[in-house]
Amino acid sequence: MAGTDHFNMILQIFRDVAPSITSGILTVVLSSCALFGIQTYFNFTPGVFSVGASVFVNGHLHRLLTYPFYHKTLAQLLLNIITLVFLSGSLEKGVGTVRFLFLFILLSTSTGLFYAFLDLLQSDSSQCNTEGLVPVALACVALTTMHTKMTKGFLCGVSFPTVALPWVFLIITTALVPHSVLLCNVIAILIGWMYGKGWFSLLDISEARAGVVEKMMPFRLLRSICTVMFVPASTEERRKTLLPQINPTPGSYPVQAYAPLSSINTADITANMYEGWPNATSALSSPTPPLNPYGHGSAHGFGTSHGQSCNHSHLTHSHGQL
Questions:
Q1: What CA–CA distance (Å, rounded) separates 315 from 80?
Q2: Are 138 and 189 in contact (CB under 8 A)?
Q3: Mean pLDDT of all residues belonging to the chain
Q4: Using one digit for the tens of pLDDT, what is the confidence trace for 186-234?
Q5: Where is average pLDDT lowest: 132-141, 190-199, 231-240?
Q6: Three-state secondary structure along the chain?
Q7: How far apart, in whole angstroms, are the C-alpha atoms of residue 52 and residue 198?
Q8: Residues 6+ away with beta carbon under 8 Å from 121
Q9: What is the mean pLDDT of the segment spanning 226-252?
Q10: What is the pLDDT of residues 46-62, one digit of tens each?
């Protein structure tokens, strides 16, 4: 029983830490896995879909669209998928599934195009082709940081300026992910930064247009998958999807009972109270002394009554002597 509780606790922690899988992320992941299976089955030449100077030298323009889905090894595929899931999920939740897939193609194509041009300017001995999802994930992070209102970001308990987060992830991914090219990753961050500045606004798809496209196939099929979150393009629908309204059942929350209002004038009570505490000024200036806690009258009244009683007894005693 203890082992089962421990496993359930670990599973709950993993659910809280792991980001939710959205339709756009799932589409990219399945496409990468499908291409990896095809190139493994047919034993393609290594680097057949990579991006480099061959884009211009041999006219392989199709590589600009295929290189983010291409991975040489299984370890590279798994690490790239993990990077994409953790770094690009917030962008899809911010713009919607349709616009995220459009941005994915736009950012990857622009990054591959600039990198291929710079690789063409280099000597043949230093040519290095690139592939994988890491450049696009870094571009998504750079784009997200340009639109967020947060000035600080936290990573493993360490605080960083939000603008510096893409560069921190650049160092981590370049060191850990195999076949990762530093120059291409830097270009990807700059492309995401330029898009966040609005330099590619003419190529962007509007929210209204994305709302029309998501009602067509294959997005209608993605919307029908119950276990995966499809993020709508409309701001109102996206808010309802990401922040669903909570309708608690009756009796699920404790209700505090309040005493009925007394006949005392509430205006006077409010005037004599300050933030729930008696006002010291009003308490000192009040002509009516506080009541005795033991149920008797005030000290002044008690002294007066006692004096009157003594005087009455003295007169009676004098009258008896007379």
A1: 108
A2: yes
A3: 74
A4: 999 999 999 988 887 788 788 888 888 888 888 888 887 777 888 887 7
A5: 231-240
A6: CHHHHHHHHHHHHHHHHCCCCEHHHHHHHHHHHHHHHHHHHCCCCCCCCCECCHHHHCCCCCHHHHHHHCCCCHHHHHHHHHHHHHHHHHHHHHHCHHHHHHHHHHHHHHHHHHHHHHHHHCCHHHCCCECCCHHHHHHHHHHHHHHCCCCEEEECCEEEEHHHHHHHHHHHHHHHCCCCCHHHHHHHHHHHHHHHCCCCHHHCCCHHHHHHHCCCCCHHHHHCCCCCECCCCCHHHHHHHHCCCCCCCCCCCCCCCCCCCCCCCHHHHHHCEECCEECHHHHHHCCCCCCCCCCCCCHHHHHHHHHHHHHHHHHHHHHHHC
A7: 27
A8: none
A9: 71
A10: 778 899 888 888 888 88
Amino acid at residue number 102: F
Q: Tokens 């809280």 sit at which residue?
A: 16
Please identify which residue in the block is written with the tokens 């994988």. Answer: 132
Q: Tokens 């911010």 map to which residue?
A: 94
Of 207 and 310, the structure prediction assigns the larger pLDDT to: 207
